[in-house]
Amino acid sequence: MIRHVIDDLYQIGEHVETEHGLEAILTYVILNDGNPLLIDCGSHIHRDSVMAQLTELLGEGIPEFLFLTHSELPHAGNIAAITEKWPDIKVIVSNVMLPYIEVLPVLPLEQITQVVPGTKIEMSGRTIEFVDALLKDQPGSHWVHDSRTGALFTGDGFGYMDTAEGSQSVVDGSDAGSAGDVSQAAFEAYHKIAFRFLRWIKPERIAADLRKMFAKRNVQVIAPIHGNAITVNIDKHLDSLIGALTAVNKSYRK
Amino acid sequence: MTPQDTLQEAKIFGDGLGRVAVRAITPNIFWLTHCLGVLAQDYYKEYFAVLPNAADYAGDRIVDYPFSAFLIVDEKSLLIDTCGPKQKEAFLDAVQFCLDGRQLDYIWISHVELPHAGNTGALKQIWPSSQVVTVAGGENYELHGLENALTAAPSDVIDLGEHSVEMVDALFVDHGLSQWLFERKTGMMFTADWAHNLHEPAKCHCFKFLDEMFEAGYDAKTHVEDIKVNAWYQFPWLAWCDADILCEAIDDLFDQYDVKILAPSHGNPIRKDFKQFIPALRDGMRMAAEMPFSHVL
Ligand SMILES: [Fe+2]
Ligand SMILES: [Fe+2]
Ligand SMILES: [Fe+2]
Ligand SMILES: [Fe+2]
Ligand SMILES: [Zn+2]
Question: What is the pLDDT of residues B1-12, one digit of tens each?
Fold first, then answer.
């Protein structure tokens, strides 16, 4: 389902059923004045619908870059279809990735560029910046910030389990289920499964790093892959996320 | 060459980015491993460049990093992980060589990443009746190409005949849904992404067990340093940990399981005198947690 997020940013993709609720598997598209950018490319089980949605949204537009937050199948599962349709697309991944073995071997390795956190790409009046993925399940992951929309693409971080009603809309303050607000419990259900390392950490330390990251740049949109984009109450959602991480950590202590 | 001949020397399938070697750890347990050999210097240069002491890994000393699977052959056979799609042809040949005409009964997956699970579909095509086993907890495994998996939880046991494997709570993980495995007859503990060293192709360390590496110039100090560096890369969350709690968990693990063989995904297996290495595993983890992390926030 194509959904407009803000300005020239759209999300596409599907939700799948899990034991804990509906999990989104999204791709983000920045139209970027005719030079579209993709963030992740969805699951192979949604190949036909992802490609149809991309075609509908882009028309004749040819995406120049595919930024992969990381290379697991739900994030990079359509890389074969994408490179078949747009053979010249450049794929950008983290410097701590080993593309020859961690990305599906369906495109020449020369087409994949690795970037270190802190790298910035300037294009059509916007700056795309790669930063460390503070919540990740694969070492070779990064988050991506877009200066024009203020979107922070957080990969697996900030994922949440949704309801049928909430999954219908981006989180923009409207009153349909979680579309009004993502609860701490919804973040908690997701992060407990995704990040088992939370059992070992001091929550206040990761909280401090997350707050620094948000304080340092203009974040208007939190754009997770496993939850619809969040465009309202950014500070409050950061608080809820930190509350969820703290609760997951506590759940491991008897 | 018979599968058991690989107790002494490796049998190698394929080459370059796709090669896979077989070594028998015991007459019935095989290590199937991919590493780059002479190509390592090209592929790991950037990877290790972010270390404070990069020259120790990608300059004066050129290291290599294995991606491994393990196969237990008994009345029933069980494969631990699958190597990656890039190694598909050589890996399938290697599994068939070790099975020596038998069926593959279980494809047990530690976690969903491609280098660990990426050949599951290809294996299922050859052995359609094999059962995929993944960790319970709520993932939609179809997303990872692991549909129809049987899910297992810590302390669940699969009987293979003389061998039996117990699911182990994976302590130190990248992916949230991960499991480790303990084989009760031999005392082999599979620890996926934790507790691995590095090796040097130039010193002919590829496809060697740790005791053989020590005979070929590897030493205890480098071993601890390698465990540290690998943990630092693999578990960036160590930035937010106190080391003591990790060391306690390591001690508890080896109190609970009488480990005699250590089989990590990305290191050279320890087949002898395992207990003497426990302090190195603990110290390496402590040192990793105490290393600076330079997160770009
Ligand atoms: Fe992930
Ligand atoms: Fe994910
Ligand atoms: Fe992993
Ligand atoms: Fe791994
Ligand atoms: Zn090697």
Answer: 999 999 999 999
